[in-house]
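re: that chain from earlier
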Amino acid sequence: MNLENNGKINFLIGIYTPFSRALTGGIVAMHKLAYELADRGHNVYIFCEPEYPHPNIKVIPTTLNKEEEFLEWYNWEFFNYNISNTVAIYPQIGRGNPFNTEHVVRWILYDTQEDIENDYGVNDIYFNYVNFKTFRKVEHKQLTVLDYKFNDLYQTNFGKRKGFCHIIHKHTPPNGLDIFNNLNSVDLTNWKVNGAYDYLRDELNKYEYFLTYDQKSFYTLAAGLCGTKSIILNPGQQYEFTSNALTVDSDYNKNMTPTEYRLKNPAQMFGTAYGWDDIQWANNTIGMVKDHLVELEKLDKKSVDDFVKYWENKIL
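^ sequence. v structure.
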């Protein structure tokens, strides 16, 4: 397979997974980025069928070669490209440079792991999704692409609501389940298989509060669009599971105030309480969520424009 050489940039994006196989925030972001770059007139190549189809997106045939615990290895059809106009974009979990391109982007969709980051090239360009942490002290440019699901989720019942709901996610500590049980919180964790966004919207509209241990999560945005206030539990602590052991990330500031939290996480500006003592803020601002996210979407699109301009100036 020969990649285009038509005066446009070839963006090779390391996406191998459709939504039917895994529906995570990172995978959604990668698919959405493919669409946004294609929509700006450049050539985009990915390794599975696009979830946001566009004439400028082409699929390099790929097969799953091996799968082990949380790891997958793929084989793809051989392809040729013009090295001068081709940019590889890898998420932060991508090791090395399997596409062997000269121009490489590391899209920091979550805090990096040191052993993986050690495999990055010394000249790789870092673009950060928000303000995730890396071990290398290099410049981080901004690139944020989020599908806010306005059409799927913006249906709000501000009337008949009661109680709590939650989604068990990667930062939920073992004793978090006890807290959910003590509050009679309803578990929506299986929303993806129970009807996806339609189910999530209908269920969120039943409850007054959404509980989470995640400090940066699409779920708080989804809840806000449905009129459900979010409460972030154990503010200032971020939990990680490594080798089946629970650790607390000490780099998170346990003394961060709700105002400081919101300045660092603008998507959670309204409708979200940073701890139990902040609930009044969530109650007072829940009606401001959608308009705020509409404005953030405009900033996201500008970050894509700036990303494209950066590479146009560099290699065209």
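The chain has two domains: 10-147, 150-293.
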